[in-house]
Amino acid sequence: MSIWNQTLIVVGAVSSILTIISFFLPIKSASSKYVHAVYVALVAGVVSIATSQSLQISRLNDIARTADKLVEDREMHFTHRGYVQASLAFLEKNRDLYPDTYLRALSLCAQFSCDKPDGDAHIVDLAFTMSGLIRGLGTMSN
Length: 142
Prior knowledge:
By secondary structure, the protein is an all-alpha fold. Helix content is 81%, strand content 0%.
């Protein structure tokens, strides 16, 4: 589900909850307006926190699924060099969550000369190493 769809669902839920609350709290004086404002702020805060947590969990689940799919498709859809490049792209996309893993992958790539044609002798080892990194991220994210 996209962020836009989740935002629309949250706005709908918040407005429904606030409508129900305001139905039971009629405005009779100036102080009750403040009570309504507190309820609105409280509900909006709780919904914002819940939405943020939901988005984080959703992203971790997406990362786990993508990592598992990348590892599953390694031998059927990629050459060894292509798999290394796909792994680097995956790690780069998620480097805000896994910066150390991304730096480790870049270090391995430099060590195995993955960007040079003469690095073919060790590219198989590097592909298996990257597969282990990606598999670990998929396991951690579940």
